Amino acid sequence: MAVTIPAAPAPIDLDLDHTALLIIDMQRDFLLPGGFGESLGNDVTLLQKVIPPLVDLLAAARRVGMPVIHTREGHEPDLSDCPPAKLRRGAPSKRIGDTGAFGRILIRGEYGHDIIDELAPAAGEVVIDKPGKGAFYATGLAETLQDRGITSLLVTGVTTEVCVHTTTREANDRGYECVVVSDCVGSYFPEFQRVGLEMITAQGGIFGWTAHSADVIATLGDPDTDNAAS
Fold it and tell me: Which candidate, 217, 221, 145, places its Cα nearest to that of 177?
């Protein structure tokens, strides 16, 4: 089904039959008080603002049967997939692999590595574990999208200027049309949030489009209502 979503820099036409909702790194280590994000001196409440609109968007996507893909950034317990340059990030004793408030920081299988309860994946939804910032690097995301015939992505999650931006750029290079849902992505830094969104839409949409969740949800509609009206 073809729809037109109000967006910046201009409305975007999407084929919903070939569109997926991508939810990036909505993990406890990044979003909860006491987690890795807060240990770096960040205000996690700025990321938590993303949760309510993203809960609504996720519900709408599930309602219309849109494929949903979740990602989690993290590493193997032996840190064999974590380069030294990344291991050095963070304060001493609060680095990747160290013990934090929710288990070992950003280690697969730990409580903090997993997705927050409000956005927990449903049965059948794909979960991509990624070792880097971008969701395509060293993962099966490209194959997952190809197998499902996906050509467009609704991009959400955290953080706007890091994992969201990296993934959007990677997707753009691979030919995917990306709509970054502006109130469903978040940053610890308000200025990075603003500039990150502006960079996506600059020069006529150099990396993609941005749209508000309310406009996206309204465009998705309700299949039961749509069927009743036809």
Answer: 145
Report how far residue 103's alpha carbon sits from residue 167's, in angstroms, rounded to the nearest whole number: 26
Q: To 10 degrees, what angle do helices 213-220 and 51-63 make?
A: 10
How far apart are the C-alpha atoms of 221 and 229, rounded to whole Å?
A: 12
Question: Which pTM was predicted?
Answer: 0.95
Residues carrying an active site annotation: 25, 130, 163
In tens, the pLDDT along 78-124 reads 999 999 999 887 777 789 999 999 999 999 999 999 999 999 999 99
Residue 79, Ramachandran bin (φ over 0: left; ψ between -120 and 50: alpha; else beta): left
Task: Give all strands (DSSP E) within 77-166, no chain letters.
Answer: 99-100, 103-104, 126-130, 152-158
Q: Which of 213, 223, 222, 229 is nearest to 58 (CA)?
A: 213
Strand pairing category for 103-104 and 99-100: antiparallel
